Amino acid sequence: MVPSLPIELVNRILEYLWDDMRALFYSSLACHRYREAPACRRVRVTRPSHTMYIQNRADIDAICCALSSQSTRGFYLQDGIRFLLISSNVQTSLVNIMPFRISPSHLPALESIEIYDVDWMTYRPHPNFFLRLAHFTSVTRLELRECRFCYTHELRRLTNAFPALTTLHLDRTTCGRLTSSGHPSLRRQTLEELYIPSMGLDERGRSMLAVCTSYSTITRLHMYVECFQSFSEFQSFVCHFAQLVMLSISSFPGPPRVHASGDAPELSQVDGRLPPFILNRVGVYRVPWSFAGFLFLWLAKGSVSTLEQFIVHPPEDPGAAAGCATSNFLNKTVNTLGTVHMTVFVPGMREIVKADPVHQF
């Protein structure tokens, strides 16, 4: 029988793997003594213990071997894996393989699945792919970044597969074709939160936004103004969410883009449609006043008497018209407003002063 190496020697050997995170990660799976080594503990800080990464076929093979063995399965059960990150592969789609290789019963605490750069046009999923996803009953959040569907309705089919899904995050996700011969069967909707930081301005991007409007149960909406060509287009999109209670609008840093129809129309020119929802929280971050002014005037036309929190941080000093629009909006919410965070521009000062003026109302 070969005697065990002293733990000091084991730690010294593992230190030579300082630049190979994958080898250190697999070493921590091999033995509980290796797992507690300083080198392995450092890699667990870099790779959070509650997160599982799948970046290539070797990753998914190693994870499946670990989960299928009772001696190593505890490594993941002890960590309580809550996040699963899957990126694309040049030879195959790892997402299409994942539900067939990994059993949801081995990841009972899994809450979020993030999928990066997957082309479902090139690699079509197995007919039972969506049926297998239905077993991930603990997943409540799905994030899709730079993914490509074959048809627009497949986004709805994917979200329908997760029975407890409440949050959807879409970033630069598009489709290859605009129409399809069939539509997914509708099931009880569970989505409550929708986050869209970026969406194409072409017809495919508009079609993806049209699919998003079918999620009528959304109560919290996070959008970037760069997703829309005009305020009128944004207005038409938001009106589909009658149960909305929280609205957050942001803009990417940099020179403001034009998001209003025509050549800078007056702030008093707002569409006559009333907001179909009753908000209790509004957040506006770095949004040009050419857009924010329209937003405040439009929201003031609806029911804002239940608003409890108002946050606005503009990228530039608002003009007189924008200031009046904001003042008119706040005057209608003074009875219920509990928190106000505003960025105030003080003449003669380069720095921006952040204020909480709720006690002044």
The unreliable regions are: 258-268
Distance between the terminal alpha carbons, to the nearest Å?
80 Å
What is the averaged pLDDT score? Answer: 77
Spatial order of the strands in the main sheet? 1-2-3-4-6-8-9-10-11-12-13-14
Determine the strand fraction and express it as a percent band: 15-25%
How large, in whole angstroms, is the Cα Rg? Answer: 25 Å
Give the oligomer, counting copies of the same chain as homo and different chains as hetero. Answer: single chain
The biggest beta sheet is recorded as: 12 strands, mixed
Question: How many H/I helical runs?
Answer: 13
Description:
The chain is of the alpha/beta class and 361 residues long. 33% of the residues lie in helices and 19% in strands. It contains 13 helices and 14 strands. The chain has helices spanning 7-15, 21-30, 32-35, 38-46, 57-68, 70-79, 94-101, 129-133, 153-161, 203-212, 231-238, 289-301, 320-331, and strands spanning 51-54, 83-87, 112-116, 141-145, 148-151, 167-171, 174-177, 193-198, 220-224, 246-250, 281-285, 309-313, 339-344, 353-355. Helix 10 (203-212) links the parallel strand 8 (193-198) and strand 9. The model is unreliable at 258-268 (pLDDT under 50).
